[in-house]
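Continuing the batch. This is chain 6 of the set; chains 1 through 5 are on the previous pages. Same settings as before, nothing changed between runs. Recording input and output for traceability.
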Amino acid sequence: MSYGTSSSGPRAAGYDKPLPAITELTQGFWDHARARRLAAQVCSACGDVHFPASPVCPKCLSDKQKLQPVSSRGRLESWVEFHRAYWPGFAGELPYRVCLIRLQEGPLMVSNLVGASAEIGEAGVTHLFASTQDEWYGALETLIVDARRRREMGAAGRRHAVANYGLSAQADKLSEALREAAKRA
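Output for chain 6:
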């Protein structure tokens, strides 16, 4: 894949989604990502794991930071579903979901929620819905600043997923699929 340059950072040929501006501070993160590893900054003074990278530790203000791989495991805190493409590259993916993940190591990361059913929850209870740019910014701000709301929505989302998509909820479908498979064997 060849990369060019754009005002928003490196540009892959034919790729029209927004890309980050890679700086000296973020270069290591993207090097790890290119090697298919998730990394976060760790403070050498107090051990705080944080993301995104910063010149000083947000807990103790030490400038002794190192980047190291993290587990890539986390918990879905909340998500928002977009029904409007704010960038042309997302037009073919509507609706799409953006989520907040609490990494096992502690920091929050914004990501995409993929492979989830559109009926996975109830807007306002398990996730936030945005159809305008102002709603998107409001939803994102809500998820970032309101820890109680993130916990409530995350818990509601987990309950909904288990109740509607867990093994006990899907037992009849699973039994039928196994019976069909056994007939074909």
